Prior knowledge:
Helices cover 65% and strands 4% of the residues. The chain is mainly alpha-helical. The strands form two sheets. A three-stranded mixed sheet has the order 3-5-4, with helices on both faces. Strands 1-2 form a two-stranded antiparallel sheet. Strand 4 and strand 5 (338-345) form a beta hairpin. The chain is globular and about 75 Å long. 44% of the residues are buried.
Amino acid sequence: MAKFREFEYRRPDISIVKETFSAALKELTEAENVERQYEAIRNINAMRKEIESMSALGRIRHTIDTIDPFYEAENAFYDENDPIFLEMITQYYQALIGSKYRSELEQKMGKHVFDLAEITLKSFKPEIIADMQEENALRTEYTKLIASAKIQFEGEERNLSQMRAFFQAHDRSLRKRAYEAHTHFFAENQKTLDTLFDQLVKVRTHMANKLGFENFVPLGYLKLNRSDYDHTRVANFRKQVEKDLVPVVSGLIERQRKRLGLPEMKYYDERLKFLSGNAKPKGDANWIVEQAKQMYRELSPETHTFFTFMADHDLFDLVSKKGKAAGGYCSFIAEHRAPFIFSNFNGTSGDVEVLTHEAGHAFQTYCSAHFEVPEYLYPTYEACEIHSMSMEFFTYPWMKLFFLEEEAKFRFTHLTEALEFIPYGVSVDEFQHFVYENPEATPEERNTAWRRIENKYLPLRDYDDNAFLNTGTWWYRQGHIFDVPFYYIDYTLAGICAFQFWLKMNRDRGRAWQDYLHLCQLGGSQSFLSLVAEAGLKNPFEDGSVASVVSFINEQLNAIDDSKF
């Protein structure tokens, strides 16, 4: 197989796609037996595989270099045409669930694809295609705006990702100046960000109204294919976090304040964990990949095969650079059965964290690439995040490869930050519910709501004399809020599940790995809560689920003398 840079990109010809798809759909609806119908389904899925592969390839290359004019145009092409592709898929779904051979097809394909088809039909009508195109264009505009940041700091021009390295500086004044410079970009672009978000909220609300929903909340859940829980169960989960986790996190922040010898913690102190400095990987990106090769070779035969494949075909773009989109993600190019990892290394421990996190996603898609049904290549987001966040814990025994003498310091930091993240994650979720339940709210009212919610879950966050952040604007930097509404609680639900895997590892590592491998191999063939059960995990929505893992982890952390780091 070729390396990633050699993968051929071909823009789909819409007219040919429509003609070919219509012919295959006609075969499906007119088939006189289940075998002919199933063959038509396989032909449709083969077309989908090609289109989705080209879309993934085009969008990956656009995010690697957002100023490349060719892939900028290709990204715009998919922004405009993805809703048209979705319309064709919904026509297929209508034929699928209406098939007189449905019971036989369920035997061949599994029932879950039919459940997903019915969800999609509730969340799409041709009348919203123009709205979806507008939404896609606005999302791309946000991505390009964030990628365009050029911040002059310490004698060099830096983007937002590169600035994050200074958030861990030992010099407190340097940390503060770095945050202020980072924040200044958002302050300068506040009007643009508010306008963009206003437009996104309005177009999403408009789509929901056209589909018969009171607001975007139920539509947002449907678009994420959530089939076995709703906003009421999510709200109950947030209550658990507020009750059982927020006090624990407040205690961890107080321990950090004492370690740093500060009279009070400010927002620009949060990323520095120790006076001796945070743990850092002891080499550059290429060196980190070499250590990862050894780690995955020793972790299991399956991970060895997987990571060798990734490395041999250059299925990474890891280092932050000019014009590159922010953040990290894993994509999948079905035509090559190839996962792809995108990140923005900046010389901090986050480089190792993002690699192991995205490798968890990539490993899952590699394990489930055998599914013929495209819907089963990966599950819904909250289940996907179990794979990634659990992989971070499964790789703990190899952290010495990356951090040498700072291994214990890294593991303590990683575990505390995994706990500290969850209250922030539910803040983002509650904020999004406010936004879409109150679509006419002004930017000032949204910011006030953010600050109120933030104070509930992050009561010790202190923005000091930063007037901009004190008005409630921290959320501007959270791309998920702009890009994929309601995709953030997923990290917190998965976090509770990943903690359960970590508990299992402490008791029986071999069994924990087999449960994890089984979960990855199931791909998206079942719903979230069914997958949780298959992995032998507790339902995170059930009362007591948060408390059960937090108490154990807090005991482990309390047994560590962090003053020695």
